[in-house]
Amino acid sequence: SLQLNDSGRYTVQGMEPVLKSVVTFSILSPTEPISNVILRSNATDLVELNDTAIFTCSVSSGTSLSYRWLNGSSEVTASDRVRLAGGNSTLTIVCVTRYDEGPFRCEVINGISNGTSQPIGLNVRCEYQTDVTSSEVAMTGHIVTFKCSASSQPPSQFSWFFNGSHVAAGSVYETGPLTLASHGEYTCVAFNNVTGRNSTISKMLTVVGESWSNLNPLIEYFEDDSFTMTCNIVGDPSSIHWWKNRTSVHLDNRTHVSFDNRTLAFNPVQHSDYGEYQCMARNSVSNRTSTRCTLLVNYGPKQPVIAGAPIAETEQRVTFNCSASSQPPSQFCWFFNGSQVATGSVYETGPLTLASHGEYTCVAFNNVTGRNSTVSKMLTVVGKSDYRFFALLC
Ligand SMILES: *[C@@H]1O[C@H](CO)[C@@H](O)[C@H](O)[C@H]1NC(C)=O
Ligand SMILES: *[C@@H]1O[C@H](CO)[C@@H](O)[C@H](O)[C@H]1NC(C)=O
Ligand SMILES: *[C@@H]1O[C@H](CO)[C@@H](O)[C@H](O)[C@H]1NC(C)=O
Ligand SMILES: *[C@@H]1O[C@H](CO)[C@@H](O)[C@H](O)[C@H]1NC(C)=O
Ligand SMILES: *[C@@H]1O[C@H](CO)[C@@H](O)[C@H](O)[C@H]1NC(C)=O
Ligand SMILES: *[C@@H]1O[C@H](CO)[C@@H](O)[C@H](O)[C@H]1NC(C)=O
Ligand SMILES: *[C@@H]1O[C@H](CO)[C@@H](O)[C@H](O)[C@H]1NC(C)=O
Ligand SMILES: *[C@@H]1O[C@H](CO)[C@@H](O)[C@H](O)[C@H]1NC(C)=O
Ligand SMILES: *[C@@H]1O[C@H](CO)[C@@H](O)[C@H](O)[C@H]1NC(C)=O
Ligand SMILES: *[C@@H]1O[C@H](CO)[C@@H](O)[C@H](O)[C@H]1NC(C)=O
Ligand SMILES: *[C@@H]1O[C@H](CO)[C@@H](O)[C@H](O)[C@H]1NC(C)=O
Ligand SMILES: *[C@@H]1O[C@H](CO)[C@@H](O)[C@H](O)[C@H]1NC(C)=O
Fold first, then answer.
1. What is the pLDDT of residues 39-87, one digit of tens each?
2. Whose CA is closest to atom 1 on ligand 7?
3. Is 154 in the pocket of ligand 5 (CB under 6 A)?
4. Most buried residue among 21, 22, 38, 362 by CB atoms closer than 10 A?
5. Which CATH superfamily is domain 35-125 in?
6. 71-75, 141-145, 196-200, 387-391: which range is least confident on average?
7. Domain Ig-like spans what residues (predicted)?
8. CATH T-level fold of 212-298
9. Sign of torsion over alpha carbons 39, 40, 43, 45
């Protein structure tokens, strides 16, 4: 009845003839059943990507063992990060991730029995990209809500800073009604109190006035001077456009914009520039149009014109109408033979006499530009009788 300790070296020795022989017996044990599978890990609180998890599987008794590793219900296989060693009795996971939380078990099998360890879970602390969502541009009076998120384990605690000063705690920060002073950098600090790590993200908020530009409602200018209009914009528009009477301003060799379109220059300004101007600023999220500016160009009077009959009979009345292109409209004076006879654009003669024959002069005067301009017209007066006689002759 061989026992395991009967294994060993046996020697036979003879005297006649002299002989000696050695034989080694190995008493093979039957496979021992497995009992008490124990799983150990050298640490269970790990920091993602920084730490290595090491599991060791052992049994109290059992022989001819083979090992299988389970993560939850799926079998663990070797890979770059996952190594099996010691005849598969140790499992090493380098650079643990949050997907390595387990629970892990080891299963031990031999020909006659099997056993499975208690599970061990890992606690993998991690921090990921912190993000802030909100609009980038907002108008005064509006309220902007910033939301900060950070995927981390345990959840992060959040603090908010505006231009470097602490303003609030919590993942959501709501500004009050915005003023132009609310323009600036908003920072969320996500703090993971277990890893002791902070992650910070900032967002620029551009605050623009309700009206991006207030142009003067009325600008009066003198023709032939140069003149510049400016679009006053808070913030940083990506483009600015100028409108005249609701269509794009036509740029020519008198009309220029600066490189960023903030100013529109007229050199010289002309009375054809009269109109309603607006600037429109646009960025990726919005566009705003300024108030309207009426550009009024004072000029003239240009050469006046007299309308009316050049020839008339005695006793008739003649009406002369003087007009001149001018801003503001001109005032008019009438002169006949060097004496003032009337004011106003319309001059009606009295009943004509032969003495009414002569040169009538209209002076147009612009009391804003201080200029005047003169035109004359010859009136030929013929006697009624002369006219009949003339008719008789015919
Ligand atoms: C676990 O084992 C690894 C590798 O030997 C070692 O770097 C690490 O410090 C150990 N962790 C603990 C908590 O003992
Ligand atoms: C993780 O590792 C990085 C560098 O490898 C180190 O800077 C950081 O402090 C480590 N974090 C922890 C919590 O150990
Ligand atoms: C370790 O396990 C792998 C399967 O994961 C197997 O192919 C290999 O033969 C095992 N090695 C030992 C020594 O049991
Ligand atoms: C483990 O042993 C049980 C009986 O004790 C058996 O029903 C089961 O199939 C075995 N499992 C494996 C994987 O051999
Ligand atoms: C860490 O923060 C969590 C909430 O995120 C809190 O429940 C826990 O008490 C904090 N732990 C410490 C040590 O401050
Ligand atoms: C992380 O932020 C918290 C709260 O703002 C602060 O108290 C702590 O000092 C910061 N820690 C580090 C390491 O920056
Ligand atoms: C300036 O205005 C012109 C014409 O309206 C336009 O084509 C151009 O894109 C504008 N540039 C900028 C910087 O706003
Ligand atoms: C501007 O252009 C007009 C024609 O559009 C031309 O008559 C004038 O001479 C130009 N003036 C200058 C300063 O180039
Ligand atoms: C622009 O509008 C004004 C009236 O607001 C008008 O008198 C002027 O003729 C217009 N100019 C053009 C070029 O259409
Ligand atoms: C300006 O923005 C409004 C919406 O706010 C949009 O309907 C309009 O088309 C935009 N205009 C231009 C010229 O981009
Ligand atoms: C210019 O004349 C207008 C009438 O055409 C008058 O209403 C205005 O007061 C005058 N302005 C000056 C400065 O004289
Ligand atoms: C017209 O202008 C000239 C010079 O500019 C001035 O001498 C004259 O008195 C003016 N006439 C009137 C009617 O205003």
1. 999 888 887 777 889 999 999 888 888 999 999 999 999 988 899 999 9
2. 261
3. yes
4. 362
5. Immunoglobulins (2.60.40.10)
6. 387-391
7. 33-111, 119-206, 223-290, 304-380
8. Immunoglobulin-like (2.60.40)
9. positive
